[in-house]
Amino acid sequence: MDVYVQVPPKLLGRVAGGVGLQADVPTGRRMPYVQLGVQDHRGYGVNIVSGRYNSREQFVGYSVNEDRWVKMGGLTLELHRFRNNK
């Protein structure tokens, strides 16, 4: 499951940003994250995401603790455009 709330475009102009939460329901793992991006008038853009998750799993005789920072980036490319040739 992924829930994302974006800041209204009027507040940030060309930059888009927001916060989200990814959750894996069966394992109970959750990762809150922040995302920022920008896209130009031609459809090209970049974005970055930074989030952190941790989980603890208990097994017979031992437990596993995970604590990770996740950083991702993306590139948006407009591969085609439809034109209205009248």
Describe how the helices and strands are arranged.
Elements: E1 2-6, H1 9-12, E2 15-24, E3 29-39, E4 45-59, E5 62-76
Antiparallel strand pairs: 1-2, 2-3, 3-4, 4-5
Name its key features.
86 residues, mainly beta, five-stranded antiparallel sheet, elongated
Domain count: the total is 1
Question: How would you sum up the major sheet?
Answer: 5 strands, antiparallel
Low-confidence stretches: none
| Order of helix and strand elements from N to C terminus | EHEEEE
| Number of DSSP-assigned strands | 5
The overall pLDDT, averaged over residues, is 80
SS-derived structural category: mainly beta
Please, how many helices?
1
Strand order of the largest sheet: 1-2-3-4-5
Percentage beta strand: over 45%
Radius of gyration, taken over Cα atoms and rounded to an integer in Å: 18 Å
**What is the terminal separation in angstroms?**
44 Å
Estimate the helix proportion, in percent.
under 10%
Globular, elongated, flat, extended or rod-shaped: what is the shape?
Answer: elongated
Protein model, in words:
The protein has 86 residues and is mainly beta. The chain has one domain (2-76). Helix content is 5%, strand content 65%. It is built from one helix and five strands. A five-stranded antiparallel sheet has the order 1-2-3-4-5, with no helix packed on it. The radius of gyration is 18 Å and the shape is elongated.
